[in-house]
Amino acid sequence: MKTRYIALPVLSVLFSASFLLSTGAQAADVPARGPMAFSDYDTDKNGSISEAEFNAAHDKRMQNNSAAGMPMKGAAKRPMFSQFDSNNDGKLSAEELKNGQMHHQQEMMDMRKDQMMNMQNMHKKNMQQ
Questions:
Q1: Residue 104 belongs to what domain range?
Q2: Second label for 47, Cα 20 to 30 Å away, from 18, 38, 75, 87?
Q3: 78: Cβ–Cβ under 8 A, 6 or more apart, which residues?
Q4: pLDDT higher for 45 or 21?
Q5: Least trusted range by pLDDT, from 21-25, 46-50, 69-73
Q6: Does the keyword Transcription apply (predicted)?
Q7: Against a cut of 0.85, is the pTM above it?
Q8: Using CB atoms within 10 A of its CB, is residue 69 exposed (0-12), middle (13-18) or buried (19+)?
């Protein structure tokens, strides 16, 4: 019995350490979650983000997360370049990126809020039956 109590925390620490080491290389590339910095997208450093750079940064994040064993549940909700390119010039400025990221985050929060409310309503209905 005592070995079971010791083994579980040890395995937990080892798993956590290996996960942190495997995702540590990713930190230098693109963040695993949340908004990416303008510099993560603008790989040619010309001061704007092309559609190809935008898609490449998102693809790189998905590849890194997949390699780290992270769930890909938000992949279908990935923002589109056209949603960010407010002046339709085929490139994103820092301001367009920031505004697009804020809008996308708000949409995601609203969607999660709706999901939670739907789950609560379903739970209430089940409790009434």
A1: 2-128
A2: 75
A3: 58
A4: 45
A5: 21-25
A6: no
A7: no
A8: exposed
Determine the Cα–Cα distance for residues 59 and 47; give it in Å rounded to an integer. 21
**Which amino acid, residue 107?**
E
Distances (CA, A) of 124 to 80, 113, 118: 36, 17, 10
Please compute, for residue 118, the number of CA atoms within 13 A of its CA located in the half-sphere on the CB side: 6
Structure tokens at 10: 């040890």
For the chain, the 3-state helix, strand and coil shares in percent, each to the nearest 5, are 70, 5, 30
Q: How many structural domains compose the chain?
A: 1
8 Å CB contact between 81 and 56? no
Token readout for 81 is 């370049």
Which of 69, 60, 64, 61 shows the shortest CA–CA distance to 19? 69
pLDDT band at 71 (very low <50, low <70, confident <90, very high): confident
